[in-house]
Amino acid sequence: MSIDQLLGLATGVIFGFLLQKGRVLRYDKQVGALLLKDMTIFKFMLSAIVVGMFGVLALHEMGLITLSLKAMNVGGILVGGALFGVGWAVLGYCPGTSVGAVGEGRWTAIFGVIGMVVGAGIYAQMYPFFKSTVLAWADLGKIGLPETIGVNQWVVAVVFALITLGMFRWFEKKGL
Q1: How far apart are CA 158 and CA 12, in angstroms?
Q2: CA 122, CA 43: separation in Å to the nearest integer?
Q3: Residue 126: count of CB within 10 angstroms of its CB
Q4: Sign of torsion, CA 135 123 46 5?
Q5: Phi and psi angles of residue 141, each rounded to the nearest 5 degrees, phi first
């Protein structure tokens, strides 16, 4: 195993531990999120996004990493988002939490893990077809929000963090 693989494994184990400690692997939390009655999962995800956003931007500013934007492909986002949402609603777990739930011993989540592997295989086999159809719909190229609206990336990060904090406060006031 290479050092990159070991670091990936360690990161995955730590992330799984945090998912478990944050109680986001629980089925009732998943259903509560889908029904917009329990914001535990959204708070967990938004916290991770804010921390990750500032971490990535800081590493980029220090010259330790290079940012590489992915293409903004509307067709892929719509179809992928729909598949993600349907899978989450049917299974009661999103991809990361289904793997974590299996790790906790919730064997029903194994169907989601199997579905992800089979789905990835089907996607790989059908990629040439998707490339000329779904992935060709409204391909806007490699764009990001800061470039699109013409502001510094740190401004976007700070505004997003402030909106997130406001949402957290609102969630707490509503008992979510």
Answers
A1: 27
A2: 33
A3: 12
A4: negative
A5: 85, -170
Residue 145, token pair as written in the block: 């929000």
CA–CA separation, 73 and 81 (whole Å)? 12
pLDDT for 17 equals 85
- How far apart (Å, rounded) are the C-alpha atoms in residues 70 and 64? 19
Q: Distances from the Cα of 57 to the Cαs of 12, 16, 28, 92, 166, in angstroms?
A: 21, 24, 35, 33, 22
- Residue among 159, 172, 162 at smallest CA distance from 39: 172
52, 44 contact by CB (below 8 A): no
What are the backbone angles phi and psi of residue 159, rounded to the nearest 5°?
Answer: -60, -45
Instruction: Tell me how far apart the alpha carbons of residues 5 and 19 are, in angstroms, rounded to a whole number.
Output: 21
Directed axis angle between helix 95-103 and helix 3-21, to 10°? Answer: 80
pLDDT of residue 159: 96
Could you give the CA distance from residue 59 to residue 65 in angstroms, rounded to a whole number? 6
pTM of the prediction?
0.76
Mean pLDDT for back-to-back runs of 10 residues, the chain (176 residues): 88 84 83 89 91 94 89 87 88 83 86 91 93 84 86 94 96 89
